[in-house]
Design brief:
This protein is an alpha/beta fold and 703 residues long. The protein folds into four domains: 3-288, Rossmann fold (3-Layer(aba) Sandwich), CATH 3.40.50.261; 293-456, Succinyl-CoA synthetase domains (Rossmann fold); 504-581, 2-Layer Sandwich (Dna Ligase, domain 1); 586-700, D-amino Acid Aminotransferase, Chain A, domain 1. A seven-stranded mixed beta sheet has the order 9-8-11-10-12-13-14, sandwiched between helices. Strands 24, 25, 26, 27, 28 and 29 form a six-stranded antiparallel beta sheet that branches. Strand 3 and strand 4 (57-58) form a beta hairpin. Helix 7 runs parallel beside helix 9 and helix 10 (278-290) packs across helix 16 (436-456). The structure holds coenzyme A (COA). Coenzyme A binds next to helix 2, helix 3 and helix 5. In the N-terminal section; belongs to the acetate CoA ligase alpha subunit family. Residues 492-528 form the ATP-grasp domain. GO terms for molecular function: acetate-CoA ligase (ADP-forming) activity; ATP binding; metal ion binding; transferase activity. Keywords: ATP-binding, Ligase, Nucleotide-binding, Transferase.
């Protein structure tokens, strides 16, 4: 991505408005008016064949008549005229176009949108939109949109897929004093998308936190890549999280992989912090744009009221940064600034008698103490205190300490005076919120950011000894027979080619062969039907376990064949596999889907009811690091079972994490081939005893 080209779009030095209008109320009029009202200092060229002048600017019949350098053309003419206009812009040497006009891919006119982008690219132009509100930038005094005014000035920048919502956000955050430098509407993302804007904003000196409102990514993998590399915090609200494609999924994993779960995992991998709702997005943006990350969870709460202190304590636990009692030396010092009946533990309750001085002294001491890594200052408005005085005391105490690498968040509960004081704090770089739990949630976001950053630079795992040639031979054979569902034997051959331990298995086509193979593999054995027409073998009576001798093999062979025919008379039966009966182990499931947004994605969970009923599974977009594979083991609710509960020995988690890495490597390497796959069950033994993939399934992509 060429950042200079994006500079032309987002920080233009000259702008043409195509469809500029003298008619008040038209979008083409509003955009020109907004450029004036935001005191834009670049050149403005209204384009309209019917006007000589609009809002004091000389008007040109076409963009080619301007004959001066133009960075950005904002297009506000009806959809049917846009394509021709792109040619004119290209010929006029414009760097980028922002198409406000609606009526393209969102109403089914996909080809028209594609044509516009192709045309623009042929002239070296980039396209923002269509179907956008425009671009707003405080640092460039640039309101190139039909949103009413520039956002409240701040250090976050927000990118929104929804235009109307962006307008709402502009006004709503203004009222609350939550500041942004830029608001960017990206609409249909025909060309410039989330990944491009993240890259641009990461290099923008006026942006310290990147905030996203997402309905869906077009190229999720690139978003992960650029976000992982970003130097700034990214916080995102994802809407539209209903399950997708579940009904059509042929494998277990496919039916469990809902968009919400995969997005959540992808955000974590990308180092993107999630927001729960719009308010949470603003609150988290405020903290992340103004404060440093929280290095560990030693958070101290200072308050003048027990109630807000308890609310803060509850919220700290809820958001994953539970409070600890402050060390003795901290408590001793704090006691000097409170009455006998105060509390120096944590929350530090200065009591309702606390005035500016006590706040100043306790904040100044605490933030400077090595144990304290983050400070939340709470205050309930009292008649004896002036909220602005308290706010100033907090700010002065932080400044005087000289500490810049520990975050501070504030909540004042009170009326108008408290509101004003909180606005003042925000303007002076300290995030302030109306309720204690919001301040703690903001602090938790700063902790999440610190944790996420630590793992974002881990190298993805690759398995050097993978035998892709062998895997492709198996796949090509199935394709030559017009099969997309591989047999268990074929699937296991591929798993084995990628280093995963699978149970021994052989295909018999007669009773005699079955006996021979069972003896070779060693008793006890499992026998299973092999048929591309019978995917759910147990349901068809096609599985017999714990067969201990020749007689058992012969009986099972006959019965399985009978059951299979009864289940589906015309089933194409390849034979019956004889499989090593692996000893009992904890059953886990590994699986993969080819997510429409993120590509190969791996799922992990405990087998049996954990997956069937509880749907206790976790996802990661492959590839990922060995450390991230380890973290998958702790992400499921049933994690304590693997760690060993009720006298059970811990399972071989090291081997399991390693197998997850090998599996991820397989689905990335074969991403053009594998649509879905499962290793289910994988039997995991005691620590040091490894695991075995007992059954495997691979479904190929249709070609
Ligand atoms: N070059 C220059 N000016 C042109 C032109 C061209 N090729 N074609 C038309 N114009 C002029 C028109 O004459 C008109 O000027 P006038 O007021 O002086 O007559 C002006 O451009 C606008 O055209 P008009 O036909 O009046 O359209 P409109 O203003 O009613 O609607 C849009 C245009 C783009 C606003 C409308 O089509 C649209 O897409 N609206 C939705 C936008 C939106 O909501 N986007 C964000 C979604 S979240």
């Amino acid at each position: 991505m060429d950042i200079d080209t994006l500079n032309g779009l987002f920080k233009p030095k000259s702008v043409a408005v195509i469809g500029a209008s003298s008619t008040v109320g038209k979008i083409g009029h509003t955009v020109v008016l907004n450029l004036t009202e935001s005191k834009y200092e670049g050149n403005v060229y209204p384009i309209n064949p019917k006007a000589d002048e609009i809002l004091g600017f000389k008007c040109y019949p076409t963009i080619q008549d301007v004959k001066k350098p133009i960075d950005l053309a904002i297009i506000t003419i009806p959809a049917k005229f846009v394509s021709d206009t792109i040619d004119e812009c290209g010929k006029a040497g414009v760097k980028g176009v922002a198409i406000i006009t609606s009526g393209f891919a969102e109403v089914g006119l996909v080809d028209l949108e594609k044509e516009i982008v192709e045309k623009a690219h042929s002239y070296g132009m980039r396209v923002l939109g269509p179907n956008i509100v425009g671009i707003l930038s405080n640092s460039d005094k640039f309101n190139g949109s039909f949103a009413p005014f520039l956002p409240f000035n701040g250090k976050g920048s927000l990118v929104s897929q929804s235009g109307a919502l962006l307008i709402g956000i502009d006004a709503a955050t203004y009222m609350r004093g939550i500041g942004f430098d830029k608001l960017i509407s990206i609409g249909n993302m025909s060309d410039v998308n989330f990944a491009d804007t993240i890259e641009f904003l990461d290099n923008d000196p006026n942006t310290s936190c990147i905030s996203l409102y997402i309905e869906g990514f077009k190229d999720g993998r690139r978003v992960i890549d650029v976000s992982r590399k970003a130097k700034k915090p990214i916080v995102a609200l994802k809407s539209g999280v209903s399950a997708h494609g579940a009904a059509a999924a042929a494998s277990h994993t496919g039916s469990l992989a809902g968009a919400a779960k995969v997005y959540k995992s992808a955000f974590a991998q990308a180092g993107i912090i999630q927001a729960e709702d719009l308010d949470n997005l603003f609150d988290r943006t405020l903290a992340l744009s103004l404060q440093p990350p929280l290095k560990n969870d030693n958070v101290l709460i200072i308050t003048n009221g027990g109630g807000v202190g308890v609310l803060g304590t509850d919220a700290a636990e809820k958001y994953g940064i539970p409070l600890k009692f402050a060390p003795e030396d901290v408590q001793e010092e704090l006691k000097k600034h409170m009455p006998e009946f105060g509390s120096a533990k944590n929350p530090v309750d200065l009591t309702g008698m606390a005035g500016n001085e006590w706040y100043f002294e306790t904040v100044n001491f605490s933030i400077s103490h090595k144990w304290v890594q983050g400070l939340v200052v709470l205050y309930c408005e009292t008649a004896m205190t002036d909220p602005m005085g308290i706010a100033q005391a907090i700010k002065e105490a932080v400044v005087k300490s000289g500490i810049k690498d520990k975050p501070v968040a504030v909540s004042f509960v009170g009326g108008e005076r408290s509101e004003k004081a909180m606005h003042w704090l925000v303007e002076n770089g300290i995030p302030a919120y109306q309720a204690p739990d919001i301040a703690l949630n903001a602090m938790a976001a700063l902790r999440e950011y610190a944790i996420i950053r630590e793992s974002a630079n881990d190298e993805p795992f690759t398995y050097a000894k993978a035998d892709k040639k062998l895997a492709m031979e198996v796949i090509n054979k199935a394709r030559s027979e017009n099969r997309n569902a591989l047999t268990e034997i074929e699937a296991k051959e591929i798993f084995s080619a990628y280093g995963m331990p699978v149970t021994k298995v052989k295909l018999s086509t007669s009773e005699e062969e079955a006996v021979k193979f069972a003896e070779e593999i060693g008793f006890p054995v499992v026998m299973k039907i092999v048929s591309p027409d019978i995917l759910h073998k147990s349901d068809a009576g096609g599985v017999k376990v714990n067969i201990t001798d020749e007689k058992g093999v012969r009986e099972a062979y006959k019965e399985i064949m009978k059951n299979a025919k009864a289940y589906k008379a015309d089933a194409n039966i390849h034979g019956i596999v004889i499989q090593e009966m692996a000893p009992w182990g904890t059953e886990v499931i590994l699986g993969s889907v080819n997510d429409p947004t993120f590509g190969p994605t791996l799922m992990f969970g405990l087998g049996g009811i954990f997956v069937e009923v509880m749907k206790d599974v976790t996802f990661k977009v492959a590839p990922f690091s060995a450390k991230q594979a380890e973290s998958m083991l702790t992400e499921i609710k049933a994690a304590p079972i693997l760690a060993g509960t009720r006298g059970e020995k811990p399972r071989d988690r090291k081997m399991l994490a390693n197998t997850i890495c090998l599996y991820a490597n397989m689905i990335v390497d074969l991403k053009d081939e594998i649509s879905e796959s499962d290793a289910n069950p994988v039997l995991v033994y005691e620590e040091g005893s490894g695991l075995k993939v007992a059954d495997a399934r691979i479904i190929l992509k249709k070609k």
